[in-house]
Amino acid sequence: MNSLPTPELTDGVIFLRPLAAEDAADHLAGEDEEMSKWVSGGRSTPATVEAFIRNSQENWRSGGPRRTFGVFDCASSRLVGFIEVNLARLVEPGQVNVSYGVFRQWRRQGLALRAIDLMDEYLRTATEARQIVVRIAPANTASLKLAEKAGFTFHGLFDEPEGRMVRYVRDIKT
Ligand SMILES: CC(C)(COP(=O)(O)OP(=O)(O)OC[C@H]1O[C@@H](n2cnc3c(N)ncnc32)[C@H](O)[C@@H]1OP(=O)(O)O)[C@@H](O)C(=O)NCCC(=O)NCCS
Is the pTM of this model over 0.85? Predict the structure, then answer.
């Protein structure tokens, strides 16, 4: 089952589209210490990024649970980050886990907020999901603040395979 999103997800400032092989170099170049610490699980290499993109493409092609988008700047078409939903990681019925990162030089311009809203639109139109869950390390201040600014509410502290995580939730718009 091919689950590629149509039409393109955009708000006129950024657009989301599934990552392609040609995005690998930009994706790797965008990974700073925070990105590798909080989302990549360590330093990426050309080989790990290529494998990540191949796996993402396979999920899109087969209708798999991981739906990964590159986040692109509309004005320049440059890759500025990524956002991903894991439909399989259902914490409670209807809940889906979303994670994201914005490259350092593009931060504090509201792009993560925009990407979350476009992900909300994707989930509303293409899936049965009802609530977004973000799982954030307690020391990741930027991400905690972002969750609050994006209108998420505190859901609790949970012991996860990666360690203790704060969960925030936001209902998908109807
Ligand atoms: C967290 C992250 C995605 C935020 O992306 P961003 O595009 O800079 O976020 P936005 O510009 O949309 O920020 C929206 C709001 O979030 C809060 N915020 C974002 N970054 C912040 C920071 N470094 N310090 C304090 N508040 C911050 C602010 O309230 C901000 O609004 P403001 O700029 O008007 O004050 C980005 O810092 C990042 O990629 N970090 C590394 C990867 C990561 O931690 N991912 C999340 C894993 S759970």
Answer: yes
The total number of structural domains that make up the chain: 1
**Is ligand 1 within 6 A of the CB of residue 104?**
no
Ligand 1 atom with the shortest distance to the CA of 81: 39
Identify whether 1 is part of a domain.
no
Identify which of 146, 164, 165 to mutate to test ligand 1's pocket (most ligand atoms within 8 A of the CB): 146
Nearest to 20 by CA among 67, 60, 54: 54
Please report whether residue 50 resides in a domain. Answer: yes
Token pair for 164: 């203790």
64: in domain = yes
Measured from the Cα of 134, ligand 1's closest atom is: 48
Which atom of ligand 1 lies closest to the CA of 101? 39
The set of residues, in sequence order, having a beta carbon less than 8 Å from that of 4 and lying 6+ positions away, is: 18, 60
Domain range spanning residue 118? 9-171
Whether 72 is in a domain gets the answer yes
| CATH code where residue 26 lies | 3.40.630.30
Query: How confident is the model over 121-137, as pLDDT tens digits?
Result: 999 999 999 999 999 99
Q: What is the DSSP letter of 173?
A: P
